[in-house]
Amino acid sequence: MKDEKINKVYLKKIKLFQKYNKYYYNFNKPLIDDKQFDDLKIEILALEKKYSFLNHKDSPKNSVGFRPSKVFKKALHAIPMLSLSNAFDEKDLINFEKKILNYLNKQDGYEIEYSAEPKIDGISASLIYKNGKLITGLSRGDGKEGEDITENLKTIKDIPQLIKLKNFPEEIDVRGEVFIQNSDFKRLNDKFANPRNAASGSLRQKDPNETRKIPLKFIAYTYGHEKGLIASSQNEYLSLLKEWGFKTNTLNKTISKVKNLMSNYHEVEKKRDKIDFDIDGIVYKVNDFRIQKRLGNVANAPRWAIAHKFSANSGVSIIENIEIQIGRTGALTPVAKIKPINIGGVVVSNATLHNEEEIIRKDIRIGDTVVVERAGDVIPHVISVDLKKRNKDLKKFEFPLNCPSCGFQTIKDFNSTTKKEDAVRRCSNEGYNCEKVAIEKIKHFVSKDAFNIEGFGKKIVENFWNLKLIRLPNDIFNLDYSKIENLDGWGKQSVANLKYSINLKKTITFERFIFALGIRHIGLENAKLISKNLKSIKNFLLLSKKNNLKELLNIDGIGETQINSVKNFLENNKNIKVLNELGKILKVIDAKIPKSDGPLSNKTFMLTGKLNGISRAEAKSLIEERSGSIVSNVSKKLDYLIIGEKPTKRKIDAAKGLKIKILDQPTWLKMLNKTS
């Protein structure tokens, strides 16, 4: 009942927050002043921090401004607008460069040239030109699809609408950042909390005349789709942008070596407060476009770029309690409940303590005065204890040896790579047998990248669990809706909406289904690899039968750790029950095997030995670009065995025995050249 009352208070505040937003953004009639609005946001965020079950799509942390009333059409980006990986220290940069060198198969002495660009804290925009004319302007959206905000972008003086220069490409998607200068923001009689929110809210107004009133700026820094662009490097492209009439960042530099990147980073960081627009780090891009193209992308980020975030904000607080949270894989995570403090404009009341070893190493105790650090979107964490302020009576924190949820013994897995026990302690009660693990697994099941059931968030999962409406994922599809109608906050319409959302998700792709199961070490990318190779849920279920796990051995990218995780999952009777029940309820769409007319279509390759001048990762990319595929084992399914220096004799002998074609590197490269 207590939770229900808290939720009612929370929803009332959310409703007010949206009302004020709507009147300001859509009607331009603010109902309250700045301070009152900011205080309301702080109250909502503080509630969300204190009560983990509170979450809403219209929360201040999930929204900027207000939805522009279905005014904007949606449009696909010809080339996705990817996110960037983050670096926070020199070690991260060293690892970033090391990965590039490994991919390119270059030694540590090989020098990579970077374009270092201050990262503006604004709103990304894409400008599509054809024959020199601005045709379309899109917001970033989800990276694949953006909002058509062409007319709003045309109000920005920094954006040329017609470029008649001969060297301007036939087609190009110029990308950059929309922002407001700090000096302009101070002069605005505005309701925005900061310049970034002001830029976002202004750019997404339904009336371009309202956008026109705001002194928005635009700085260009990259491109997406292009036809006829003549530039060999990022540096050269930036020069062309200036020639075409675009503004670029005057602090851009071309730099080699990590130590020089760090020097520039510190130099810019010192100037940060004097710059007339907000920056939150430095973006490093490999300068050479040819190398950029070779490196390509991994997941949703390019291999050739990284964002080096400025130093974290920190604050001092007191640990009031230490709680143990249990994740979907049984991991026990200690969380410090601290006296709320404001760090970088965000009220922080929780800080992760990572694991048992971290608590012991830092000797963290309940009642300690500690330094808490927050960097970007990273979860705040305790970095040190002020021992001078410690009360002598404070006792050491005893990490639970039994699961706080089910009472089962907690264990630490042995890491075969490090030959040590893992730092993380886990509940030994497998699958859905532990209440907290089960709840977290169901939360994962309905999450965005899994089933993505609209209106079935974390709070709903917890409420329905407490009411004994769900115990397993399949229970979601067999809910007694008549019981839900009588619950506080529910009615016929809201129940009908929930039912519709659930029924809509009874059809799902095989890769999302695998990911939704929440198998340890099987993230979205591994789920894609498994689905691509197994093709159907039927084949996945067959893995549970003896000796069928060998099917996973041949999947490039799936190793012993992942195979053992799948094995443990399929050995659990309750997991098998869930799979069988879901198989009866759902329509799981078989993995689509793309029909390709690529020159290496339906051909399989395996690599053994060291290749000259090219890494395995790049070799794999070259094969896959031509519709070929890589396997990990020699079998009848293999078409070609490619051998480099010092190949594995066992693999060569096995290939000869199966009469598989064996290619040395020069012969293989000739094959690629013929197919390019």
- State the name of the first-level CATH class of the largest domain: Alpha Beta
CATH architecture of the largest domain: 2-Layer Sandwich
The major β-sheet equals:
5 strands, mixed
Separation, N- and C-terminal Cα atoms: 67 Å
Widest sheet: strand ordering = 2-13-10-3-9
Tell me what you see in this structure.
The chain folds into six domains: 2-50; 82-309, D-amino Acid Aminotransferase, Chain A, domain 1 (2-Layer Sandwich), CATH 3.30.470.30; 312-429, OB fold (Dihydrolipoamide Acetyltransferase, E2P) (Beta Barrel); 430-505, 5' to 3' exonuclease, C-terminal subdomain (DNA polymerase, domain 1, Orthogonal Bundle), CATH 1.10.150; 509-589, 5' to 3' exonuclease, C-terminal subdomain (DNA polymerase, domain 1), CATH 1.10.150; 604-675, 3-Layer(aba) Sandwich (Rossmann fold). 30% of the residues are buried. The chain is built from 24 helices and 28 strands. Strand 27, helix 23 and strand 28 form a beta-alpha-beta unit. The strands form nine sheets. The protein has a five-stranded mixed beta sheet. Helix 1 runs antiparallel to helix 2.
Summarize this structure as a short list of keywords or feature phrases.
676 residues; D-amino Acid Aminotransferase, Chain A, domain 1; alpha+beta; 24 helices; 28 strands; single chain
